[in-house]
Design goal:
The complex is a heterodimer. Chain A is an alpha+beta fold. Chain A has eleven helices and 16 strands. In chain A, the strands form four sheets. Chain A has a five-stranded antiparallel sheet with strand order 14-13-12-15-16, sandwiched between helices. A four-stranded parallel sheet of chain A has the order 2-1-6-7, with helices on both faces. In chain A, α2 runs antiparallel to α3. In chain B, the strands form four sheets. In chain B, strands 13-12-11-14-15 form a five-stranded antiparallel sheet, sandwiched between helices. Chain B has a four-stranded antiparallel sheet with strand order 7-10-8-9, sandwiched between helices. Chain B starts with a strand and ends with a helix. Chains A and B meet through β3, α2, α4 and β8 of A and β3, α2, α4 and β7 of B.
Chain lengths: 305, 287
């Protein structure tokens, strides 16, 4: 296999050893960054750097964000998407951790259950009257709390100061949950009930919904959770950081390999069409690419001495 | 026309002034504390309500969104915008304006002069910046308002200790180039594409932050043509028609240091004797 292109992966440390080896099979250079190693700068130019690396000089940036640094990833994506290919557009990241906005954005392509968003304990009466207990509360950090009595409801809501958003929906008895991973070419998943996880062949309808979710977000990859009620699948959540180990264990599928393969298709070969594309975008495009290539090659030469 | 003001639980000077002036321009006005509003979704349908009132029944919405309501406020504005309600603030502008680094990124992209600024989650990543920047430097938390969370370091050692303390908040840290003279700045209040008032804010003795909330004093000030241009362009870039724009008159020309989508106006009304509340409502009513 001819290796080409340079990939930067930005994510939590615990996925580095899962992803880097697979990406190195396909790309000439793969560098893993945690958000803590990155500096964003606004001076005469705007840049994203880490040590000697300028992330704009990579051909593809795979972002695997966690909610704890959501706005940092958003700024990162926003800066880099103007300079290179990024695995998810920044405007999708902006909406991503805002649950009602995300669900509403996807409601055109996936069924959504009745959900409320509230931001203070005074909303307890609304929840009690409109939803009836028990309910599931999803906290700003994404934790789900099963609430079956009013005292617990008020106590949980009062943990969050006014302005922090809590989502509410009804729990489902014996919920059948489908956890999927969606890439451009495939939708795979398993079925979860309680602690049990089972490999399933997803039906075409669910696969179609999954692809529609991915394309609506403009993401190269995502993981979507569905709850089946009767014959209908309802979208429950979408994540950008899949559970690699679980997919490998249940499906025997190496998601890192899937992602690397897909990412390799995102990088166009260096050919005449690519050159003309840069010309039409302006001489600056060629100069930036050449400067980036030179910077990379000089760095490699130095580090090899 | 009916006006809905979305604001904090406890009404401040600004919300009280707006309610006072509102009846001159609107047939009806209601105040909705943001934390008590509920958003309900079912499929593609949605409702936004406060007790028995439906916010979608109002013609004009005026959001007053403090930083602490940023996320929920963005949600409310998103759905109000989707329902076709004209808003003086784009939904994304609430997030952008309350994120100091993002604001500077947007402004710089548009060619607006801003102080050299760096953002990182860990101090170690900022070592080269702390080594090379001239002192003093300005250190900020990513989110802060009214001068809270803004600190000055006169040396690298001082900067390192301050950043180490700031990291206990688990927020990214901003290191910004200091723009002299440092103890004064300009606040321009932009409404509907016009600067309706401007003042120079001077920090009190032994203080470098000129914010009124930090004890700064406001004095009426006439913007230069360049400062006016920067203020108007900045408000447009950050997606809001009602905005406080803070400008430092630096030695190499003015630089924009901040935009404020929830700008207070008590200080500027006092300093300039201009009726900011009335101007806001006049703009929203379309008169």
């Amino acid at each position: 296999m001819v290796k080409r292109g340079r990939v930067a992966i930005v994510g939590p440390e615990n996925v580095k050893d899962i992803l880097v080896p697979e990406f190195l099979r396909r790309f000439s250079t793969v560098v893993f960054f945690t958000p803590g190693n990155i500096k964003l700068s606004v001076e005469k130019t705007i840049s994203v750097t880490s040590g000697k690396f300028n992330l704009a000089h990579f051909d593809y940036i795979l972002l695997l964000p966690e909610s704890s640094e959501k706005e940092f990833y958003y700024i990162l994506a926003r800066i880099l998407e103007k300079k290179t290919k990024v695995s998810i557009p920044s405007d999708s990241l902006l909406d991503f951790w805002n649950r009602p906005i995300l669900l509403n954005k996807l409601s055109g392509v996936a069924p959504i259950r009745k959900t409320a968003s509230v931001s203070q304990h005074v909303a307890a009466d609304f929840i009690k009257n409109e939803f009836k207990l028990p309910v599931i509360l999803t906290t700003p950090g994404g934790k789900r709390v099963y609430v079956s009595n009013e005292e617990t409801l008020r106590n949980v809501l009062s943990l969050f100061s006014a302005g922090h958003m809590v989502s509410v929906h009804k729990p489902i008895k014996k919920a059948e949950v489908y956890v999927t991973f969606i890439s451009e070419r495939d939708v795979i998943g398993y079925y979860r009930i309680g602690d049990k996880r089972v490999h399933v062949n997803l039906d075409s309808k669910l696969a179609e919904i999954g692809q529609n979710i991915r394309t609506t977000l403009g993401a190269d990859f995502c993981s979507a959770l569905f709850v089946k009620i009767g014959k209908k699948y309802y979208l429950s959540n979408v994540k950008l950081l899949p559970k690699f180990e679980i997919f490998k264990k249940v499906l025997g599928k190496d998601l890192a390999s899937v992602m690397a393969e897909e990412a390799s298709r995102k990088i166009a070969p260096f050919d005449i069409a690519n050159v003309f594309d840069n010309v039409f975008k302006g001489i600056g495009g060629i100069i930036n690419r050449f400067a980036g290539w030179m910077d990379h090659e000089v760095s490699n030469t130095r580090s090899s001495k | 026309m009916k006006l809905a003001i979305l604001g904090p639980l406890s009404r401040n000077y600004e919300e009280i002034r707006l309610l006072e002036e509102a009846t001159k321009y609107f047939d009806g006005v209601s105040y909705f504390p943001i934390p008590q509003v509920v958003v309900e979704l079912e499929g593609e349908e949605f409702k936004i309500s406060h007790k028995n009132k439906n916010l979608l029944d109002y013609d004009v919405i005026l959001p007053r969104m403090p930083r602490s309501y940023k996320t929920f406020g963005t949600t409310l504005l998103h759905f109000l915008s989707k329902a076709g309600k004209p808003l003086p603030i784009e939904p994304w502008a609430v997030t952008a304006s309350h994120n100091k680094f993002l604001t500077l990124t947007l402004l710089r992209e548009a060619g607006i002069p801003v102080p050299g600024t760096h953002l990182a989650l860990k101090r170690a990543v900022l070592e080269d910046v702390l080594e090379s920047m001239p002192y003093p430097v300005v250190l900020k938390l990513l989110y802060g308002s009214m001068g809270v969370g803004v600190m000055f370091a006169d040396s690298k050692q001082s900067a390192v200790s301050i950043i180490d303390a700031m990291q206990r908040f688990n927020e990214p840290v901003i290191v910004e180039r200091f723009v002299p003279p440092g103890n004064e700045d300009i606040r321009a209040y932009v409404i509907g594409g016009k600067v309706v008032a401007s003042m120079k804010r001077v920090a009190k003795e032994d203080e470098r932050r000129a914010n009124i909330g930090m004890g700064g004093e406001g004095h009426v000030y006439e913007l230069t043509a360049e400062e006016k241009h920067l203020a108007l362009k900045s408000a447009k870039i950050v997606g809001t028609k009602i905005c406080g724009v803070d400008i430092m008159p630096g030695p190499e020309g003015p630089v924009v240091i901040e935009t404020n989508v929830n700008a207070q106006f008590k200080g500027i009304e006092k300093a300039t004797k201009k009726n900011i509340a009335g101007n806001i409502l006049k703009f929203l009513s379309g008169v």
